[in-house]
C-alpha cells in the first residue's frame, strides 16, 4: 500500500491556564489521581499570540499516576480544514517530549506518527510549545476525482502539442534524453483511480538517456527548517 508522508514543522501550541483567555479548565478536581482537565488549545503558525490559528488541540488530561493526554488536532487552515489527527500520550514532564499520532480523518485518514514538542516560552500560567509532526497515512482508493488545473503551453509556436490521456493525480518519475539540449522527455504518473501510466518519450532520438528522476509520495509541508 502506498503512503503519503506528513511533515508539519514550526507550529506553536498556546496553553493558557488562567485569566479571561484561558483555554483549559478542570472538569473534575480531586487533587491528582482521577482529576480531569478539558482543553481547547490554539495552534498557530508562529510564536506570536497574533500569529494565524491553523489548528486546535481539543481534548482532555486524565491523571492516572501521570497526566495522560487524549485529543483531536482539528485543522482550520484552508487546505486541511476539517481534517483531524488523533493524538495520545503523556504531556509533561518531559519537555521536550513526544505524543503518538494514532489515527486521523479527512486528508489524514488512518494516519500514524509522532508529534515532537519542546518548550518555547513559559511565563506564569502562559506557555508556548513548539510542535513538529512526522507521520504517514495510506493512500485510500477512491473513485472521486480531485481538482486538476492545466497551465501552458509555454514557448514557441513550432511543433505539435502532446498531452496525457487520463486525468492525473501524482507525477511519479521523469526521464530525459539529452546532449547539449533536451532531445526527448518521458514520464510516469498515477491517474485519479490509482493506476500507474506512462507517456513518451516525446521528442527526437539524439543525446543519451539519463536515470529517471523519481518523485516520492506526496509530502505535506508547512515549513522546512
Automatic annotation (TrEMBL):
Keywords for the protein's UniProt record, in alphabetical order: Apoplast, Lectin, Secreted
Domain spans labelled Jacalin-type lectin: 148-225
Main subcellular localisation: secreted
GO terms of molecular function: carbohydrate binding
Gene Ontology process terms (BP): phenylpropanoid biosynthetic process
Pfam families from the UniProt entry: Dirigent, Jacalin
GO cellular component labels: apoplast
Localization in the cell: Secreted, Extracellular space, Apoplast
Keyword Secreted: yes
Physiological role: Dirigent proteins impart stereoselectivity on the phenoxy radical-coupling reaction, yielding optically active lignans from two molecules of coniferyl alcohol in the biosynthesis of lignans, flavonolignans, and alkaloids and thus plays a central role in plant secondary metabolism.
Subunit structure, as described in the record: Homodimer.
Family listed: Belongs to the plant dirigent protein family.
PANTHER family, A to Z: OS05G0143600 PROTEIN
Protein name per the record: Dirigent protein
Biological source species: Digitaria exilis
Amino acid at each position: 500500500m502506498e503512503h503519503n508522508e506528513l511533515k508539519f514543522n514550526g507550529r506553536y501550541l498556546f496553553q493558557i491556564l488562567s485569566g479571561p483567555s484561558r483555554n483549559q479548565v478542570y472538569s473534575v478536581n480531586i487533587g491528582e489521581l482521577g482529576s480531569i482537565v478539558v482543553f481547547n488549545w490554539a495552534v498557530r503558525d508562529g510564536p506570536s499570540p497574533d500569529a494565524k490559528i491553523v489548528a486546535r488541540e481539543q481534548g482532555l488530561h486524565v491523571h492516572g499516576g501521570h497526566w495522560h493526554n487524549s485529543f483531536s488536532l482539528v485543522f482550520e487552515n484552508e487546505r486541511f480544514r476539517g481534517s483531524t489527527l488523533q493524538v495520545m500520550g503523556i504531556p509533561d514532564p518531559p519537555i521536550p517530549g513526544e505524543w503518538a499520532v494514532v489515527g486521523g480523518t479527512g486528508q489524514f485518514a488512518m494516519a500514524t506518527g509522532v508529534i515532537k514538542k519542546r518548550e518555547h516560552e513559559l511565563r506564569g500560567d502562559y506557555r508556548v510549545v513548539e510542535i513538529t509532526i512526522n507521520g504517514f497515512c495510506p493512500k485510500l482508493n477512491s473513485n472521486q476525482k480531485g481538482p486538476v488545473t492545466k497551465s501552458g503551453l509555454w514557448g514557441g509556436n513550432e511543433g505539435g502539442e502532446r498531452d496525457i490521456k487520463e486525468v492525473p493525480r501524482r507525477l511519479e518519475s521523469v526521464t530525459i534524453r539529452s546532449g547539449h539540449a533536451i532531445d526527448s522527455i518521458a514520464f510516469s504518473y498515477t491517474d485519479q483511480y490509482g493506476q500507474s501510466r506512462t507517456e513518451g518519450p516525446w521528442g527526437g532520438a539524439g543525446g543519451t538517456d539519463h536515470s529517471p528522476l523519481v518523485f516520492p509520495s506526496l509530502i505535506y509541508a508547512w515549513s522546512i527548517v
